[in-house]
Design goal:
The protein has seven helices and three strands. With about 160 residues, it is mainly α.
């Protein structure tokens, strides 16, 4: 009986480990898919993919199901009710990777062009786009630097996605 109990514990442990490995694999597969979606949509809108990739990494680590700001921001780019999240779209619609990325990236284009026209490049361009294309009121980089740690985290994501 003791031997049987040991076998049951070992089998349960192995099953649990297999399940954990499978879940990790599934999560990584979804992250890679979300990155591909962002890259494809970036190309469609003519914006370098490292900009939205860095922003989505910083915002949610590519978790399309993320909900933030006390339940008012949704999806990969944390589209905010009262901001870029269209009122007619449900929370589930906003958590769709493609829908979320199209809305966010389409709003990044004008900020990206303005930043380029100002001569901004690299991290300065990323901060400009991130701070002027999606927040309600578009408060800008100076406000963000003085009131949040957003740009500190954005810089970490920038280092992961900006390739020369």
């Amino acid at each position: 009986m003791k031997q049987l109990l040991k076998y049951i514990v070992v089998i349960c442990t192995l099953m649990l480990l297999c399940y954990a490995a499978y879940m990790k694999y599934e999560k990584q597969k979804e992250i890679e898919n979300n990155k591909l979606v962002i890259t494809e949509i970036s190309k469609q809108y003519g914006i370098p993919d490292w900009i939205p990739l860095a922003i989505a990494d910083h915002e949610t680590k590519f978790n399309r199901k993320a909900v933030g700001d006390k339940g008012t921001s949704f999806g990969l780019f944390q589209l905010h009710r009262g901001g870029l999240a269209p009122a007619q779209l449900s929370e589930e619609n906003l958590k769709d990777a493609k829908t979320n990325a199209i809305i966010a990236i389409s709003h990044m284009v004008s900020s990206y062009k303005r930043g380029v026209n100002k001569g901004l490049t690299e991290l300065a361009l990323l901060k400009y786009v991130a701070n002027t294309s999606g927040w309600p009121g578009n408060l800008g980089e100076d406000w963000t630097n003085n009131n949040t740690k957003y740009n500190v985290g954005l810089e970490k994501s920038y280092k992961l996605y900006k390739k020369d």
